[in-house]
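Hi all, long-time lurker, first post. I run a small reading group and we've been trying to get comfortable going from sequence to structure in the token notation. Rather than ask abstract questions, I figured I'd post a concrete chain and ask someone more experienced to write out its structure so we can walk through it together at our next meeting. Sequence below, copied exactly:
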Amino acid sequence: MVATTAVATTVAPTATAAAPETSTTVAAPVDPLQIRVGGFGRFDFGTRPLDMLSLISTKLGAPTSSTPQDFPVANGAVYATPDAQLSFTRPIAQKVCWSELCVYLGGDAAASLAFVGWEYIAGAAAPPTVKLHNADGITLGSRWAAFGSAMSVQPGGCASATAGRGSTSDSTHLFVQGANFKVPNAAGGFDPATPDPSVVTVSGMFAGDRFVKASGDC
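-- Answer (accepted) --
Happy to help. Here is the structure in token form:
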């Protein structure tokens, strides 16, 4: 009889590929009253306005005014009223306001108006009765010195007011007021100037399209 020697075998364990890690990014909730360069809260410019108007009314109460306005006179890229004192980007419009906040609706027909702009302008009330802000926290009464690079201010403009922009998270347009945005020069005219940021405050904010007066703001 021939002796048989069993050969030991070792089977390597089958490697199991690790499942890829997955991550879920949850978008931060949009502040329903955040004003931004592309819209208001979660509503972008160009959307139909019904849900937006309803949400704002839920937060701020019924509108203080709602004014339809026609611009029947084509004037280049815009439309104007017959007396040419007011212009807009659409021939049919409506301006809906809640104290300091106004939103603008526009289109080719009253039945198809879309949300196209907003403005937030300081009124007689101090502090404002409507509390709004952009992504950087800039609001009516904000002082330039407190926001630094989050605001930019244009030298010149009017003597005590000029334009500005939010300049980091959201470049909303700003109206600012202070002192000495223009200073006298030796020729009897004025040179643009930038006053101390500690005396410059935000008096208004806007984005998108709004009614424009024929006369300047100064």
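A couple of things your group might point at:
Residues 112 and 125 are 34 Å apart (CA to CA).
The longest helix spans residues 50-60.
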